[in-house]
Amino acid sequence: MAIHESVNKILNQLSSLADDTNDALNNTAYILRRLSEFTDGELNEVITQLEAIRDQVEELEEAHEKVQEEVANLEEELNEK
């Protein structure tokens, strides 16, 4: 899954929670039940998705560093010629 798709999925889950709790502003029992449901299931999914995004970002950063090194090496070779 692409990073932006993962982020969109997380944002949708959090927005849903926010909408549900905002809609029930004066209904404490509903808000507590919805927060409990979120904590029980959706929160673990959000955490898992964030961990996957973190791993993807680390891989991208490593690849970016390698590309920067290669570009620097190529520029050096061109300057020597």
Structural class: mainly alpha
The portion of residues forming beta strands comes to: under 5%
What composes the largest sheet? none
**H/E element order:** HH
Helix content range of the residues, please? Answer: over 70%
Record field, number of beta strands: 0
Q: Which geometry do the CA atoms define?
A: rod-shaped
Radius of gyration: 22 Å
| Average pLDDT | 88
Number of helices: 2
Runs in which pLDDT lies below 50 for 5 or more consecutive residues are none
User: What's the N-to-C terminus distance?
Assistant: 43 Å
Short description:
The chain is mostly helical and 81 residues long. It is built from two helices and no strands. The model has no long low-confidence stretch (mean pLDDT 88).
Description:
This protein is mainly α and 81 residues long. 91% of the residues lie in helices and 0% in strands. The chain is built from two helices and no strands. The protein has helices at residues 3-23, 28-80. Helix 1 runs antiparallel to helix 2. The longest helix is centred in the middle third of the chain and has 53 residues, at 28-80. The chain is rod-shaped. The model has no long low-confidence stretch (mean pLDDT 88).
